[in-house]
Design a protein that fits this description.
alpha/beta; Aspartate Aminotransferase, domain 2; Aspartate Aminotransferase, domain 1; seven-stranded mixed β-sheet; about 10% strand; globular; binds pyridoxal-5'-phosphate
């Protein structure tokens, strides 16, 4: 093309291309519409159902302009008001959190300013915020200052990063893999097994350690299993404990397991994705010894009630992390490491990424830590309250949980599993409050997971009313009672 042609074509394109850079008046109008939507949505949260089923309408991309108001209307109908209402107080299934509003403001700021948070040179301020969040987590869990860490999208990716470091530290590769042993509880979150498979350890041996009546790993059994495997010529390398299991809210004996892992020189990983932040509450003692872990994962999108999309991992052995994630050699030289460790990219599989540090940093700075602690303490009491009320209705409940997840079932005279499943279906059909189910000790049970920051006593009262209503329906339909 000639120079004049290029200039002419550029002028033609300008009108259309600049539409992406909207003027202030339009920005304000759009933000006002989103703000109005957000306020209506949040104001209505007490009056919506926890779970709605609906066939989803057309959300395909049209390629032409559609006004925001129309898109918000569609978003409300097809997204905000369908499925589990995870922002509402009534999400008591899986592991809820809620989504603190001020984190949404942080996401807006992060997106508007768009700093490159992965590389210290590119955005020293954003990288520093990410690192300050990690520093705060180190202090919460008593990890030493030279432990490294990064923010991830959630517990699954955090586990991947931690296990990769453990694998590389213990040189688990090639013909050594089928002789390498991982020790775990049958109550670990499935992201544990999934991470092992993803990082090439599918053929490693998974040794499930017997649990006590409260679903906790028995440290003496762990010790015995490791001794046995050693004498059989195997290569024990990794122990996984949970500080809050997903199904039963159990905290394994963290300190006693640390003793066993240390005695045998194994990598000690603690999955605190769900339960970790309860270390800030009256349950602190349960977490004794957590600072002895080699790696720890923790999900701010659970126990800090932030919107989905932020997990964290702390790892003591920075060399092992760099081995997996730093892309050239020479990284073993100490002085060098310090500079490297300021850039999240060297500690994580991600390079260009969402600046997720801000959505942790801003809410903690704006609110201070006290309301987060109060919310966690409140959840511990709510689960007790829920269990008591279910008990008076004739339900059986699992053992008293360490944290805020528990389970229950109705002692139907016969076909108990079938009828509890039926009860679960009725509860999902009703939808007032969302609960999920599991199988524990071979029994079909209904879980309560109380962690959403908006969940209050009234929510539990409503849940109990709903459960009674659904139980009546099952009993009526089947003529089966306790
Ligand atoms: C939720 C959870 C995970 C997985 O974390 P994601 O953030 O969902 O990827 C791992 N472990 C436990 C105990 C969990 O509760």
């Amino acid at each position: 093309m000639e120079k004049e042609d290029i200039i002419g074509r550029l002028n033609e394109l300008r009108a259309s291309s600049r539409e992406l850079d909207i003027p202030e008046a339009e920005r304000t109008a759009l933000m006002d519409q989103v703000a109005a939507f957000a306020n209506t949505f949040i104001n209505g949260l007490d009056n919506v159902k926890g779970f709605r089923t609906k066939a989803i309408g057309d959300l395909s991309i049209q390629g032409y302009k559609i006004p925001l108001q129309e898109l918000l209307t569609r978003y409300r109908a097809e997204v905000a008001e369908t499925g589990i209402n995870a922002a509402s107080p009534k999400h008591l299934g899986y592991i809820p959190g809620g989504g603190v509003f001020t984190a949404a403001l942080a996401d807006l700021l992060a997106a508007v300013t768009n700093p490159f948070a992965s590389v210290h040179f590119a955005s020293p301020g954003a990288a520093t915020i990410e690192n300050e969040v990690i520093a705060w987590l180190r202090s919460v869990f008593g990890f030493p200052d030279d432990a490294v860490g990064c923010l991830s999208s959630g517990g699954s990716i955090s586990t991947l990063i931690a296990f990769t470091a453990a694998r590389d530290k213990h040189k688990v590769k090639n013909e050594r893999i089928p002789k390498s042993v991982v020790y775990l509880s049958e109550q670990v979150h499935h992201s544990t097994q999934k991470a092992l498979r993803i990082i090439g350890l599918e053929d490693a041996i998974l040794r499930y350690i017997p649990l006590d009546a409260e679903h906790r790993i028995i440290p003496a059994e762990l010790d015995r299993a490791i001794e046995q495997d050693r004498s059989d010529g195997l290569h024990p390398f990794l122990v996984v404990a949970s500080a809050g299991t997903t199904d039963t809210g159990t905290v394994d004996p963290i300190d006693a397991i640390a003793d066993v892992a240390a005695k045998h020189g194994l990598w000690y990983h603690v999955d605190a994705a769900y339960g970790g932040f309860f270390i800030l509450t009256s349950k602190k003692n349960l977490f004794k010894g957590i600072e002895r872990a080699d790696s720890l994962i923790i999900d701010p999108h659970k126990g800090l009630f932030l919107p989905y999309g932020v997990g964290a991992v702390l790892i003591k052995d920075s060399a092992a992390v760099l081995h997996s994630h730093y892309y050239t050699a020479n990284y073993m030289q100490d002085g060098h490491n310090e500079e490297l460790l300021k850039s999240p990219a060297n500690l994580s599989p991600e390079l260009t990424k969402h600046f997720r540090g801000l959505r942790v940093w801003l809410p903690l700075q704006l609110h201070g830590i006290a309301p987060f602690k109060a919310c966690l303490e409140e959840k511990l009491l709510l689960v007790q309250y829920f269990r008591m009320k279910l008990g008076t209705l004739g339900f059986h409940t699992g053992p008293e949980p360490d944290l805020s997840v528990s389970y229950f079932w109705y002692p139907f005279a016969s076909r108990a599993d079938d009828l509890n499943k039926r009860l679960m279906e009725e509860i999902h059909k009703d939808g007032a409050v969302f609960l999920s189910s599991s199988v524990i000790n071979g029994r079909f049970v209904i879980r309560m997971a109380i962690l959403a920051f908006r969940t209050k006593k009234e929510t539990i009262d409503e849940a109990v009313e709903m459960i009674q209503r659904c139980l009546d329906r099952v009993v009526q339909a089947t003529g089966d009672a306790a």
